[in-house]
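Researcher: Please translate sequence to C-alpha coordinates.
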Amino acid sequence: MKRRLLLLIPLLLFAVLAVFLYRGLSKDPAARDSALLAKAFPAFDLSTLADPDRRLDRSLLQGQVTLVNVWGEWCPTCKQEMPQLLELAERGVRLVGVDYKDTRENGRQFLDEFGNPFEVSLFDPEGSLGFDLGVYGAPESFLVDAEGIIRYHHTGYITPQDVEQVILPRVERWQ
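Model: Translation complete:
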Protein backbone atom coordinates (compact mmCIF):
# COMPACT_ATOMS: atom_id res chain seq x y z
CA MET A 1 0.00 0.00 0.00
CA LYS A 2 2.81 2.41 0.93
CA ARG A 3 4.56 1.60 -2.31
CA ARG A 4 1.50 2.55 -4.37
CA LEU A 5 1.16 5.79 -2.47
CA LEU A 6 4.79 6.62 -3.15
CA LEU A 7 4.21 6.03 -6.86
CA LEU A 8 1.12 8.26 -6.89
CA ILE A 9 2.84 11.29 -5.34
CA PRO A 10 5.04 12.10 -8.39
CA LEU A 11 2.06 11.56 -10.67
CA LEU A 12 -0.09 13.97 -8.62
CA LEU A 13 2.71 16.55 -8.53
CA PHE A 14 3.08 16.29 -12.30
CA ALA A 15 -0.69 16.72 -12.80
CA VAL A 16 -0.78 19.84 -10.60
CA LEU A 17 2.22 21.32 -12.40
CA ALA A 18 0.66 20.55 -15.81
CA VAL A 19 -2.55 22.37 -14.84
CA PHE A 20 -0.63 25.49 -13.75
CA LEU A 21 1.47 25.50 -16.91
CA TYR A 22 -1.58 25.02 -19.13
CA ARG A 23 -3.39 27.93 -17.45
CA GLY A 24 -0.35 30.18 -17.83
CA LEU A 25 0.15 29.34 -21.50
CA SER A 26 -3.51 29.97 -22.31
CA LYS A 27 -3.40 33.59 -21.11
CA ASP A 28 -2.95 36.46 -23.56
CA PRO A 29 0.18 38.41 -22.55
CA ALA A 30 -1.14 41.49 -24.37
CA ALA A 31 -4.16 41.58 -22.06
CA ARG A 32 -2.15 42.55 -19.00
CA ASP A 33 -2.94 45.82 -17.27
CA SER A 34 -0.24 48.32 -16.50
CA ALA A 35 0.65 48.73 -12.83
CA LEU A 36 0.69 52.48 -13.55
CA LEU A 37 -3.03 52.85 -14.30
CA ALA A 38 -4.49 55.74 -12.28
CA LYS A 39 -0.97 56.88 -11.32
CA ALA A 40 1.11 59.84 -12.45
CA PHE A 41 3.15 59.40 -15.60
CA PRO A 42 6.75 58.64 -14.52
CA ALA A 43 9.18 61.53 -14.21
CA PHE A 44 11.64 61.88 -17.08
CA ASP A 45 14.15 64.30 -18.54
CA LEU A 46 14.82 63.42 -22.18
CA SER A 47 15.89 65.23 -25.31
CA THR A 48 13.64 65.34 -28.33
CA LEU A 49 14.33 63.23 -31.38
CA ALA A 50 14.52 66.33 -33.55
CA ASP A 51 16.79 68.42 -31.31
CA PRO A 52 19.33 66.88 -28.91
CA ASP A 53 19.61 70.23 -27.09
CA ARG A 54 15.87 70.50 -26.34
CA ARG A 55 15.00 68.65 -23.14
CA LEU A 56 11.50 67.90 -21.93
CA ASP A 57 10.05 66.52 -18.73
CA ARG A 58 6.74 65.24 -17.41
CA SER A 59 5.21 68.75 -17.52
CA LEU A 60 4.86 68.11 -21.29
CA LEU A 61 1.86 65.94 -20.42
CA GLN A 62 -0.02 68.53 -18.36
CA GLY A 63 -3.08 70.42 -19.56
CA GLN A 64 -4.28 68.20 -22.39
CA VAL A 65 -5.25 64.56 -22.91
CA THR A 66 -2.32 62.91 -24.69
CA LEU A 67 -1.69 59.53 -26.26
CA VAL A 68 1.95 58.62 -25.57
CA ASN A 69 3.14 56.05 -28.10
CA VAL A 70 6.32 54.03 -27.54
CA TRP A 71 7.83 53.08 -30.91
CA GLY A 72 11.10 52.30 -32.64
CA GLU A 73 12.41 52.12 -36.18
CA TRP A 74 13.40 48.49 -35.53
CA CYS A 75 9.77 47.55 -34.74
CA PRO A 76 7.83 46.06 -37.69
CA THR A 77 4.42 46.47 -36.04
CA CYS A 78 5.16 50.15 -35.45
CA LYS A 79 5.11 50.53 -39.23
CA GLN A 80 1.70 48.81 -39.36
CA GLU A 81 0.38 51.13 -36.67
CA MET A 82 1.49 54.40 -38.25
CA PRO A 83 -1.61 54.94 -40.47
CA GLN A 84 -3.83 54.72 -37.37
CA LEU A 85 -1.65 57.18 -35.46
CA LEU A 86 -1.72 59.59 -38.40
CA GLU A 87 -5.53 59.30 -38.44
CA LEU A 88 -5.73 59.97 -34.69
CA ALA A 89 -3.59 63.10 -35.14
CA GLU A 90 -5.79 64.26 -38.03
CA ARG A 91 -8.83 63.80 -35.80
CA GLY A 92 -7.35 66.10 -33.17
CA VAL A 93 -5.80 63.63 -30.72
CA ARG A 94 -2.58 64.94 -29.25
CA LEU A 95 0.22 62.38 -29.68
CA VAL A 96 3.64 62.32 -28.08
CA GLY A 97 6.10 59.70 -29.29
CA VAL A 98 8.84 57.93 -27.41
CA ASP A 99 11.54 56.67 -29.78
CA TYR A 100 12.55 53.63 -27.74
CA LYS A 101 15.97 51.94 -27.85
CA ASP A 102 16.78 53.43 -31.23
CA THR A 103 19.32 55.72 -32.85
CA ARG A 104 18.47 59.31 -33.58
CA GLU A 105 19.23 58.82 -37.29
CA ASN A 106 17.02 55.72 -37.60
CA GLY A 107 14.18 57.38 -35.70
CA ARG A 108 14.23 60.46 -37.92
CA GLN A 109 14.40 58.31 -41.05
CA PHE A 110 11.41 56.25 -39.84
CA LEU A 111 9.25 59.37 -39.38
CA ASP A 112 10.34 60.75 -42.76
CA GLU A 113 9.31 57.49 -44.44
CA PHE A 114 6.09 56.63 -42.59
CA GLY A 115 4.83 60.08 -41.52
CA ASN A 116 5.01 61.95 -38.26
CA PRO A 117 1.79 62.13 -36.23
CA PHE A 118 3.59 63.30 -33.09
CA GLU A 119 3.57 66.79 -31.65
CA VAL A 120 7.00 65.84 -30.35
CA SER A 121 9.01 62.63 -30.07
CA LEU A 122 11.13 62.02 -27.02
CA PHE A 123 14.41 60.23 -27.63
CA ASP A 124 14.90 57.28 -25.23
CA PRO A 125 17.96 55.43 -26.59
CA GLU A 126 18.71 53.58 -23.34
CA GLY A 127 15.06 52.72 -22.69
CA SER A 128 14.97 54.44 -19.28
CA LEU A 129 11.47 55.88 -19.72
CA GLY A 130 10.32 52.65 -21.32
CA PHE A 131 11.62 50.77 -18.27
CA ASP A 132 9.78 53.12 -15.89
CA LEU A 133 6.61 52.59 -17.91
CA GLY A 134 6.99 48.80 -17.76
CA VAL A 135 7.30 48.52 -21.53
CA TYR A 136 8.34 45.07 -22.68
CA GLY A 137 8.10 45.74 -26.40
CA ALA A 138 6.98 48.27 -28.94
CA PRO A 139 4.50 49.51 -29.78
CA GLU A 140 2.76 50.32 -26.55
CA SER A 141 0.57 53.34 -25.90
CA PHE A 142 -0.53 55.18 -22.78
CA LEU A 143 -3.48 57.55 -22.61
CA VAL A 144 -2.63 60.32 -20.16
CA ASP A 145 -5.27 62.74 -18.86
CA ALA A 146 -4.79 66.52 -18.56
CA GLU A 147 -3.43 66.12 -15.01
CA GLY A 148 -0.71 63.71 -16.18
CA ILE A 149 -2.40 60.55 -14.86
CA ILE A 150 -2.23 57.33 -16.93
CA ARG A 151 -5.81 56.30 -17.70
CA TYR A 152 -5.35 53.56 -20.30
CA HIS A 153 -2.57 51.26 -21.50
CA HIS A 154 -2.63 49.64 -24.95
CA THR A 155 -0.18 46.80 -25.60
CA GLY A 156 0.62 46.06 -29.23
CA TYR A 157 -0.23 48.07 -32.28
CA ILE A 158 -3.40 50.11 -32.56
CA THR A 159 -5.70 48.64 -35.22
CA PRO A 160 -8.27 50.63 -37.22
CA GLN A 161 -10.95 49.07 -34.99
CA ASP A 162 -9.06 50.20 -31.87
CA VAL A 163 -9.14 53.79 -33.14
CA GLU A 164 -12.96 53.82 -33.27
CA GLN A 165 -13.88 51.44 -30.48
CA VAL A 166 -11.15 51.98 -27.89
CA ILE A 167 -8.94 55.06 -28.31
CA LEU A 168 -11.36 57.78 -29.43
CA PRO A 169 -14.04 56.92 -26.83
CA ARG A 170 -11.42 57.03 -24.08
CA VAL A 171 -9.96 60.32 -25.34
CA GLU A 172 -13.46 61.84 -25.27
CA ARG A 173 -14.09 60.44 -21.81
CA TRP A 174 -10.96 61.99 -20.31
CA GLN A 175 -11.19 65.39 -22.02
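Researcher: Any highlights?
Model: Strands lie at 45-47, 55-57, 66-71, 94-100, 120-124, 140-144, 150-155.
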